[in-house]
Amino acid sequence: YREPHYDDIHPNIEINYNYLEKSKILFVIPKYNGDSILNYPNFIKYIKEYSEKNNKILGLHGYMHRPEGYIKKAEFGYNNKEKDILDAINIFETFAEHSASGEEDL
What we know:
Radius of gyration: 14 Å
Mean pLDDT: 76
Structural class: alpha/beta
Distance between the termini: 37 Å
Order of helices and strands: EHEEEHEH
Strand content: 15-25%
Shape: globular
Strand order of the largest sheet: 1-2-5
Number of strands: 5
């Protein structure tokens, strides 16, 4: 059984609120096309508050996630540098630790 999920969440990608509402797992792209989600504290606050209030699970979804570069292949199907993978994890962990109240500085 697979929980309904919503891929490709980042402030530079328009959110489909119908999908957001129906999904249990929300997959966040940490650095979409090189733009870190950490540059958007208001978006972080919104998505964290939404996920907490609606019992959603946040998940890491790729690194920069440039779909034009890997038609019919997953992003991590390529030889990614370990530093890029570690950067994705670090961004996501920082995002996940950011308080929903927005009181922490990024």
